[in-house]
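User: Quick sanity check before I run a bigger batch. Here is a single chain. Can you write out its predicted 3D structure?
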Amino acid sequence: MLEIRDMYIDVGATSDWDVRRKLDIRPGDPILPAGAHFTLMANPNVMLAKAWDNRLGCALAADTVRALKGVKHPNTVYAAATVQEEVGLRGAQTSAFKVQPDVGIALDVGIAHDTPGTEGDEELGGGPLVVIYDASAIPNRRLLELVVDTADALKMPLQFESVERGGTDAGRIHLTGEGVPSISMGVAARYIHSHVSLIDRRDYDRTVKLLVALVKKLDAKAVAGLT
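Assistant: Done. Predicted structure follows.
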């Protein structure tokens, strides 16, 4: 495995003039692999696309608020698509400061460990993924119990993930103000941080259903009981 500092991209140039004048490539220009087109696999529940991490989190948030439209519940729900999570959870910090939430739920993808050469229990089709520990946050215990109890009431399977390195936006949300009960949830995906990855649509639909049920349960009394 090459270190990033040892990598280079050959664009067919023979001189600095080619790079700057003919190709108009400038310092700081972004680069990315050619991503795969959205594809339903032979199992139609399995979807292939680029950048599920973290387009999927944005989609989960959007579909959750869409499902709550016209539904009676005790909350004001904010859905934020944040930037620069991979370089310091920066967008989460500014977004949470703006909203000042009572409860924070970070929506992300997790790592599926159901392929050769990997170790772990997370798998496609195993249900919503709940992070019980990562390098940036440990979820509020009572909020975690509420998530588990809500899934049980829905007769919905859950998967649990622990990550020694890396984190999610919950790592900044929970530090906002005097502290915000927070948890990270999402969907298991194969080959995250690559230009092709796989998810199971059933995991996605279950996660939206679970999020909607949580919003309905998080009234003032329930939120007060989290701390």
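The domain at 36-224 is CATH 3.40.630.10 (Aminopeptidase).

User: Great, the batch can go ahead then.
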